[in-house]
Design goal:
With about 400 residues, the protein is an alpha/beta fold. The chain contains 16 helices and eight strands. Strands 1-2-4-3-5-6-7-8 form an eight-stranded mixed beta sheet, sandwiched between helices.
């Protein structure tokens, strides 16, 4: 009797454990690999993480030194919280078609990148088409180059995208103008101070500053690395993102709760915000002149970031603004050959050929005493300036 009782008890416990285990597995969010076809026929790979009930959707766009699987842990947490998630490999990355990014020439990489908006829209439409998806409550998240992709997706789909999460990245002038005007778009941004791509630090902070949404949120870390690489060091960031999307897509779509946490931008980031706007370069020039009265070597902004900003204005068609921004950079960093070469480009785009020639010559003159730039960069500046003089 004792042995039989023991056997039955053991069998009962085993069956109970098996039942509980299978039930737990059944509760895990289901995921499936998805094959999508781009407009030009290129095959795109994605993963869909379905929630157990109808609800909002989230599209996650990876950074350009990783691929979609970097989002897996976050996607599973989001699905468990009731959000349906799609992660996408950009063409040239992961399992998607196209020229692999590590084998592409600069021209090929540019051509691939030009197709991303169309590819992302196909993924966006696939996410919206899934059973039970609330088509009017979509969140988009991006890391590094995925930040610009996320912002541009929100700009293309302003009625559907109700929430943004941006990690360690930048967007172009058009994207920044969109964020300045998107007063009803909740935004959560995060970056680590040890980011290996140093411009990402101030770029991310700038996006937070320019966002006009009142209850936006910023998470800053001393360590953690770049983009979604922050998750292993800061698992609480994943939880924060889940809570953010639950609040802004499920509980109160398009609205975030007020937060007691505050973050104050550095003077350098505030200066970038000023420079980026109409009339800003002249204001920044005045502030620079005042600062250099007491400290002739004062630097109020980052040369590389302002240089990129100038080109972004140029590419958007604002050639006059680009000239003013790059003139400011040349004033602030008069020993840099690159600032003159960039200003030469801006003058050329604006049709001022003589001023373009003058600054191309200044770039060549500055190269003679340049010891800060590596040889490859000096050669590139020289080639660029000489091409314009020809």
């Amino acid at each position: 009797m004792i042995r039989l009782h023991t056997f039955r008890l053991s069998l009962f416990c085993s069956l109970l454990v098996a039942f509980l285990s299978s039930n737990c597995f059944a509760q895990q969010p289901a995921s499936r690999v998805v094959d999508l076809s781009a407009a030009d026929g290129t095959k795109l790979k994605a993963t869909y993480f379905g929630a157990s009930k109808p609800g909002p959707g989230v599209l996650l766009l990876h950074q350009c030194n990783r691929q979609r699987k970097i989002w897996d842990g976050l996607a599973q947490q989001l699905a468990a919280a009731g959000l349906n998630v799609l992660t996408l490999d950009l063409r040239g990355f992961g399992e998607s078609g196209g020229t692999p990014i590590d084998k592409a020439t600069p021209q090929e990489a540019q051509a691939e990148g030009n197709q991303w908006p169309s590819d992302i829209d196909i993924a966006f439409q696939y996410l919206q088409s899934q059973n039970g998806i609330n088509r009017e409550a979509i969140g988009v998240g991006g890391a590094s180059c995925g930040v610009n992709n996320a912002v541009q997706t929100a700009r293309r789909h302003p009625k559907e995208v109700k929430s943004l999460v941006l990690l360690s990245g930048n967007t172009d002038f058009v994207g920044r103008q969109f964020l300045r005007q998107a007063a009803n778009l909740p935004l959560l941004a995060s970056v680590a101070e040890d980011d290996e791509f140093r411009p990402s630090i101030d770029s991310t902070k700038l996006l937070f500053v320019i966002s006009t949404y009142p209850n936006k949120r910023f998470a800053s870390y001393e360590t953690g690395g770049h983009g979604a690489d922050m998750f292993p060091t800061h698992p609480e960031l994943r939880t924060m993102i889940v809570d953010w999307y639950v609040n802004t897509l499920m509980k109160t779509p398009g609205r975030a709760p007020a937060s007691k946490e505050t973050w104050t931008a550095t003077p350098q980031v505030e200066m970038l915000n000023i420079i980026d706007q109409a009339g800003g370069p002249s204001q920044a020039a005045q502030k620079l002149a005042e600062a250099r009265k007491s400290n002739p070597k004062a630097e109020l902004f980052n040369e590389a970031l302002v240089n990129v900003m100038g080109y972004e204005h140029m590419q958007s068609g604002d050639t006059k603004g680009a000239v003013e921004i790059l003139k400011l950079n040349a004033t602030a960093f008069p020993n840099s050959p690159n600032v003159y070469d960039s200003l030469s480009d801006a003058y050329l785009a604006d049709g001022q050929k003589e001023l373009s020639r003058e600054n191309a010559k200044k770039a060549l003159e500055a190269l003679a005493s340049d010891t800060a730039d590596p040889e490859a960069r000096r050669n590139a500046i020289r080639d660029s300036a000489q091409q314009k003089l020809k």
